[in-house]
Structures are given as structure tokens and as C-alpha cells.
């Protein structure tokens, strides 16, 4: 298991570097009139991190016999949307966080207005990048744009965010909490899996895509359970961002319904369901290891 995890960490690091290079290539270069905006975009987009969502896109494509050159533009588009959401999530009108990945959040570095526009710009660019993927058919590009729009919109991430905000005013029912995270966090993770399948030639209605979606749904939920645990027990130095924010904002979390051990058991069961969803695939080893890695993470 240790050798497997070591190999996985190396693959995640390699994918992160490849994604970083691809994201840099999508940069607009220098433009004196809008340089502050470009700098703000790059500050968050090229800020490092594990790049789990791009990894999922590329790993699912590879597991189904596809090529990373076809999946990488979709992976970059998804990472742009994820980054935009982090910029906006940190704003004073949302979670009001001063730190992200061990450095000042975007609005602390560039100001509220520029951060807001940087997020908007990245969201818009994501659709352009997906729509112009040169390594797949135009019909596949159009389907990718549709998937991204659904995952990022009111029936996806943004819908989850509004439910999250309502949780600051009241205790959410457990089923509502599940829906919150299925939308806010889970929508982009499911989209990552489906985009990887799409790049390999498997559309949303195929058995492969449905298995991938089930895997991603369980992994995304387990990811959030661990996030809630870490927010309660970890430190700013370890996580690279503010901790204790859930309690400060009186948010409903999985720790509203479980103690630490119970939450860990719940995440373990979700991880098992994720692995079982694709256990019949010939090339599921990397995705199996990823599910366990996300369960066991400490930051």
C-alpha cells in the first residue's frame, strides 16, 4: 500500500506540473491596460495545489484508453472554474477568508473589485478553453461546455453555495446537507470524471460514464467529510488556509451529525462505495488509490 501511495503521489505531482504548464499556455500574456486583472488571475490559477480535479479528468480518460492531450484542455477548463469559485468563496460577502494555499487570498492581494473580476474572467475563459479543444470533435467540445455549465450553475456549484449560505442561519437537515455538498463540491468532481470519460469517447449515457459518476459522487462526499474534520482539528499552518471558519459562521457540517470517529467511518464507507463502482475496470488501480489517498489526507 505504501508503494502504491508513493507512486500515486508522484503521479499527482507529475499531473500537477503538466496542468500548470498547460494553464500557463492559456495565459493572455502582457497587456498594460488590464495587467492588474491578468496578474490577479495568474495569482490564484497558478498558485499550485494538488490539482485533484484535473487529475480526475486525465485519470478517467487514461483508464478508458484515451489520451491526455484530449483531456487536458477539459482539465484546465475545470480548474479555471474551480479557481474562480475559490476567489469568490474567499470574498467578504461569502466566507471572508484572508488566506488561501498559505498566502493572502486574492481580494487581500488585489482588492475586492479586481478579485471579483478575476473570478469572472476565469469562469468565462473556461468555456472558451473547453469549446476550442483541438484534439476532439466539435460535438464533443459542445458537450463538454454543456457539462461545465450544468456543474457550475444553479443546479450545481452555485446552487450548493446558496444552500450553504442559508446554513449560517439555521441547522440544515441531514438530507439538505448531503444535497449542499453534492452540488457545491460534488458537482465539479462528478464533472471531472465525466469529462475524462468524454475525452476518451464515452458520453454521459454510457455505462462507463455512469460508473465514473457514481465513483466521483462518493469520493466528493467523502472529500467534504474529511474537509469538515480538518477544519475542526487541523491548523492554519498545516492546511495553508484559515481553520475554524465553519464554527465561526455557525455552519451545518458533518460534525453537526457525527463525532470525529463517526465522521471518519462514514467517509470510509463512502470511499468503499466509490472503489466498488469501478472495480470491474481493468485499469482502475490509480483511481482506487486516489480514493484512499483523499480519505487519508491530512491537508
Main features:
299 residues; mainly alpha
Structure write-up:
By secondary structure, the protein is an all-alpha fold. The protein contains 15 helices and two strands. It has helices at 2-25, 35-45, 52-63, 68-89, 106-110, 112-131, 138-152, 157-166, 174-184, 186-199, 207-233, 236-239, 245-248, 260-277, 285-296, and strands spanning 99-100, 103-104. The chain has a two-stranded antiparallel sheet. A hairpin with a 2-residue loop joins β1 and β2. The model has no long low-confidence stretch (mean pLDDT 93).
The multimeric state of the shown protein is: single chain
Largest sheet: 2 strands, antiparallel
Structural class: mainly alpha
How are strands sequenced across the largest beta sheet?
1-2
Task: Give the helix proportion (percent range).
Answer: 55-70%
SS element count, helices: 15
Count of DSSP E strands?
2
Radius of gyration: 18 Å
Terminal CA distance: 20 Å
Q: Which descriptor suits the 3D outline?
A: globular
Amino acid at each position: 500500500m505504501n508503494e502504491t501511495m508513493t507512486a500515486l503521489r508522484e503521479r499527482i505531482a507529475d499531473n500537477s506540473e503538466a496542468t500548470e504548464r498547460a494553464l500557463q499556455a492559456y495565459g493572455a500574456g502582457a497587456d498594460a491596460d488590464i495587467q492588474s486583472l491578468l496578474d490577479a488571475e495568474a495569482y490564484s490559477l497558478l498558485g499550485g495545489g494538488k490539482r485533484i480535479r484535473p487529475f480526475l479528468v486525465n485519470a478517467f480518460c487514461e483508464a478508458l484508453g484515451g489520451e491526455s492531450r484530449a483531456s487536458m484542455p477539459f482539465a484546465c477548463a475545470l480548474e479555471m472554474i474551480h479557481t474562480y469559485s475559490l476567489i469568490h468563496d474567499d470574498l467578504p460577502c461569502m466566507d471572508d477568508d484572508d488566506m488561501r494555499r498559505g498566502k493572502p487570498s486574492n481580494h487581500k492581494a488585489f482588492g475586492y473589485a479586481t478579485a471579483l473580476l478575476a473570478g469572472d474572467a476565469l469562469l468565462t475563459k473556461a468555456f472558451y478553453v473547453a469549446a476550442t479543444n483541438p484534439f476532439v470533435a466539435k460535438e464533443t467540445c459542445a458537450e463538454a461546455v454543456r457539462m461545465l455549465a450544468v456543474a457550475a450553475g444553479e443546479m450545481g456549484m452555485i446552487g450548493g453555495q446558496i444552500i450553504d449560505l442559508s446554513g449560517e442561519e439555521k441547522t440544515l437537515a441531514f438530507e439538505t446537507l448531503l444535497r449542499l455538498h453534492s452540488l457545491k463540491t460534488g458537482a465539479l468532481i462528478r464533472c471531472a470524471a465525466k469529462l475524462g470519460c468524454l475525452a476518451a469517447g464515452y458520453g454521459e449515457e454510457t455505462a462507463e460514464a455512469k460508473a465514473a459518476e457514481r465513483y466521483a459522487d462518493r469520493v466528493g462526499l467523502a472529500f467534504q467529510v474529511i474537509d469538515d474534520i480538518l477544519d475542526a482539528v487541523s491548523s492554519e499552518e498545516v492546511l495553508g488556509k484559515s481553520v475554524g471558519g465553519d464554527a465561526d459562521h455557525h455552519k451545518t457540517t458533518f460534525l453537526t451529525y457525527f463525532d470525529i470517529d463517526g465522521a471518519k467511518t462514514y467517509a470510509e464507507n463512502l470511499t468503499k462505495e466509490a472503489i466498488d463502482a469501478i472495480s470491474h475496470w481493468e485499469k482502475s488501480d490509480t483511481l482506487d488509490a486516489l480514493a484512499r489517498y483523499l480519505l487519508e489526507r491530512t491537508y
